[in-house]
Structures are given as C-alpha cells and as structure tokens.
Amino acid sequence: MLDLLNVWFISPFDxxxxxxxVVGGLxxxxxxxxxxxxxxxxxxxxxxxxxxxxxxPGVALGFLLAxxxxxxxxxxxxxxxxxxxxxxxxxxxxxxxxxxxxxxxxFIISLAAGVMLISLGGSSVDLTHVLFGSILAxxxxxxxxxxxxxxxxxLTLAVVFRALVVECLDPLFLRGQxxxxxxxxxxxxxxxxxxxxxxxxxxxxLMAVGLMMLPATSARFWSKRLEGLIGIAIVLAMVSSTGxxxxxxxxxxxxxxxxxxxxxxxxxxxxxxxRYHSLAAKLRRKTTPLAVEHGS
Amino acid sequence: xxxxxxxxxQLHNLHLAQARRTVLEHIEGDFKPGAITALIGAxxxxxxxxxxxxxxxxxxxSGEVVxxxxxxxxxxxxxxxxxxxxxxMSVEELVMTGSWPSHGALTGYCAGHYRKGREIxxxxxxxxxxxxxxxxxxGGQRQRALIGRTLMQEAELLLLDEPFANVDSxxxxxxxxxxxxxxxxxxxxxxxxxxxxxxxRLADEVLMLNGGHGRWVAPSALNQHHAPAQVVxxxxxxxxxxxx
Lengths: 296, 244
Hints:
The complex is a heterodimer. By secondary structure, chain A is mainly alpha-helical.
C-alpha cells in the first residue's frame, strides 16, 4: 500500500521537470482562481477567454524577435493584452458598442494575427507549444517568472481587494467616492493579462483560462461567501494542477489538457452534488419545501 | 468645523441637458445643513438629471454646482440601484463598506468599526439580518441596509431617489426617523418623493420641477395653495407601492 502511494505520488517528483512543473502549477493555482472568482461575480466570465486570445500576437512577436524566450514572450503578451483591453474600452466608450462586443471583435483578430505571426516565423511545433503550452518543459527562469508574477498578483489583489469588492457590487458607490475609480478596473484587467502570460507557458494561451475559470465556477456551487469562494477555488485549482500532472505522468497523456480536464471533472461534480444551486440541492429543496422559510 | 449656517450645496443658474436636449434651465438653489429638501415633479421633469449634476456625474451646459462636501461624505441612493443581488455579501459587510472610503484600502476594520456597524444595524432594526446574504433580503430590508452604509459613511450630503418605493410601511417609518436624525446631526438631505404623505412627514423645503424650471415652495404652501385634487394626481402617479 505504502509502496503504491510512493509510486503514484512521491517518486514522480524525483524528476526535476516534475518538481518544477508542480511548483509552477501551485503558484498559478494561488493567483488565478481569485481573479476567476471576481470575473464570475462581475458576469465577465468570457472576458478571460477573450484576453487569453488577445495576448497571442504579443507572445508571437516576442517569439519572432527572440526565439523561445519566456521573459520576452511574456513582455510581448502583457503589452499586447493591455493594448487590446484599452482599445476595446475605447471603442465601447466611443459609443454604441458594448465592451464585450468590442472585446469579441478584437480577440478574434488577435488570435488570427498571432497564429499568422508564429506560422511565418516558426514551425507547427512552435505553434502547438504556444497554443497549448508544455508544463513539463518549464526551466528555472520560467519558474521564477511564474512565481514572481503570481506573487505580484496576490499582493496587488490584497491591496485593491476592498475596492474591487465594492466595484463588483455597486460601481456607482465607488464612482461616487473617488474620481479615480476607473483605476480599479484597469488594475484588475492588468492582473488578468499578467496571469494569462504566466499561464501560457504551462497550459498554453488557450487553456490558461481554464485554471482561472473552472475552479471559480465550481466554487459557486459550494459557498455563498466571498472568502469561501476564493478559498475553495484555490484548493480546487491546486488539486487539479497537481493531480493532472500526476495523471499525465503515469498515463502518458498531455499535461495541460489533463489538468484542465481534471478541473472540468471537479466542475461537473460540483454542478451535480454541490451545496447550492446544484442538481442535488434542487432535489433536496423539492422534498422539504418548508426549509425555504426563514422567518423575519 | 464649518459654520452650520453656511450652505453646503449651491446651484447657480444651472442649465442641464441630456442627449443635447435641454432638461432644466435657470435652476437656483441653496441647500443648508440640517435641511431635508423634497424634490418633486412629474416623470421626466428632470429630477434624476438634477441629482446626476449634483453628484458630478453630469456636466452642466452652463451655471455651476458649488458643493463643499468632500466626495467621500456624499452618498447617492439611486432608485434602480445597480446592485448585484447575487453577490456573496452579507448585510454587515455591506454596511461596513461605508467606512471603506475614509478608512483606506489596506488597514483592516478595527473593533470600533464593527461596534459602530452593529449600532447602526440596531438603529435600523436589521441586527438579526447581519449575516444574511443580500440576495435573501426584501426590498425594505435592502433599503435599510443601504441607508446603514450611508450612516457608516457619515454622509454629509445624501441624495435619495424615491427611497420609499417598494418598501414596507415599517421601513418607511424607520427611514423617516433616521433621515430626520441625520438631518438634525447636520446632514444635507435631498429626497425625490412622489407621495404627499411622505412629503408632509419628511420635507422642510420643496423644490418643484416643472416645464424645465424649478420653483422653491414651502411644504405648507404646497398643501394650501394646491388643492389636494391638483397635487395628488401627479404626485401619487401610481407609485403608491409603499404601504403594500
């Protein structure tokens, strides 16, 4: 028994690449889920996806200029992601179009531009790498970058937390309080872009969103409190990233998809058996209708 | 401390427009500390437009709004509040956010803040709801929690857009009492009202908007000069959901 535990959970980490991968995964699991929770609460769940596409041309440009250098590609990604976010904001402010419509237009342009750029300068292997990542290929520089970005995100979130909560709940109240309330939204978008650039090395630009959104959407089935949501989402993300890595190691399957699919299993389980709003909760409610009564 | 007699909010020859259409012209006003002003007028008369201008959300075409109240001491409760009711927040947490602007982002709430928050909830009769999520509140309970936030904020200028719409009569009584206390403590309060009964109980002064102009009237004059038959139809205007 102990032997089996050792074979499944301990010995894989004899390999350096597995150690770096799991640390990178855990670092991302700390930073990404809180952002995801706020996105879900603001009804902006799809914006994460859009931003993930938006960083692609920047990553591709970095790749064309400096080869496969994570720092350069990340800088490119951050710059491009912020640019798209600003452009989308500007287009929607110009009038008429809502921000999500502008965002949808920009992200699809970005995706095409990114794929085009990478194809011009590299092979289809490079394209696969950027689109789908390879957590097992993280080197020490990449790990430092990921850990650094995650630390920055967690610290910044701690500073802007209250403003972010107020802005999510009642933007008008925040606007009434300060002329510079717009910065909260900008900082949040900036953190989003940073997180996605940290994630693309491990999970690829397209799936980096998974570790952000799936734990957050799953957590909604388990808690009604903000702290609870964030805590549960982080635990779910950590379990998925570590479990997914181990699965990919033992079953010889690609690591990125197995991490995200494991998070997906967590989502389906939560939707079926979670405490709130799940299928099981609905069935429970039907059998005891009086429990809805709260008194006044 | 500023002198109490000095007005906190003045409107000078205000000209306001929405989408390039003039809504209000030549609006003059002087709102004193401790006074509750009722803002009345038919639908579309420009009540919300005037409130937007006072809160600095709408730039006047000409004239000016002079307000000496610091931004973090101004509170605005719009009628259809853009409050996300699925947001995982309790009544107590909502009330506590009122202290955030002056308190800063980094430091935690101390025991004194929580004590103040609990006192406020007790005054409003929502102590038993402290840990209830916002989504499970009735309209009246939510309105009380929001007033609780403005109390926490120590608001000196308070603008309310139909605070008694869709609110139970017990809440109306409590809110009227609390608003009067806030005014007695020196707050300047402006309330958009539709109900003559509420107006009689609450207002010290009345600014009536009609045909793009504003007219200041005393509440008593409103009762005497306008026979109820004239005033009531447009003031009550099918909005008497309050006592339901």
